[in-house]
Here is the input.
Amino acid sequence: MHALGPQWMDPQYLLDTYGTAFFFIALAIVFVECGLFFPILPGDTLLFSVGIFIAGGQLHDNLLVALVGLFLAAIAGNVVGYEIGRGVGSPLRNHDGRIVKRAYFDQTEEFFGRYGARALVLGRFVPVVRTYITVVAGIGRMERRHFVTWSAVGAALWVLVVTLAGYFLGNVGFVKDHLELVILGIVVLSVIPMVVEYLRHRRARGMSPEEVREGSADVVEDLGRS
Here is the structure.
């Protein structure tokens, strides 16, 4: 699986290198991705891999304990991201750096505007939106109880669907024999929604076809490592 990207983004490498500490690393990565401005972290692939590793006996954590731990890490990241957005507000929104990008806020706000509070559930399955949606909710001063409720629903669904998919598919012959290909497929599928949203956003702003193609290539480059 090392062809997928940097070694620290490769679940198999992390498991082989850190052994039983792998699960705690997974919890830390999920926490950071869900609220601390690192949208390139491999949240989806980690959840899927945790399921596969438990099913295959490579990871000896109890499945239920793993699900609860991942859920708590996700919701804790959400709360931290929300409080950062609520506390810092506009200065953070207007920053345009290498990691905290104004374009990511634009895309997330558009997503939020379209789906309202449901975006906290739907956005959980979309890279970048998953990271920035909680910050946007904080900047907009969404009511805390409302935010925590919808975030908890989104976190539970995300963790259950992706981790259990890995758990039940982990012993399927094709998945076991082509794990790198399956993980790569998850990455591609997770990137597609953001590319589509980007293209729609740019076309709505009247960009030329050449600018749209260049922009979508940038999105793929940024998100393809998720």
User: Anything to note?
Assistant: The longest helix spans residues 63-88. Confidence is low (pLDDT under 50) at residues 1-5, 211-226. The CA atoms of residues 124 and 130 lie 5 Å apart. The chain has one domain: 2-223.
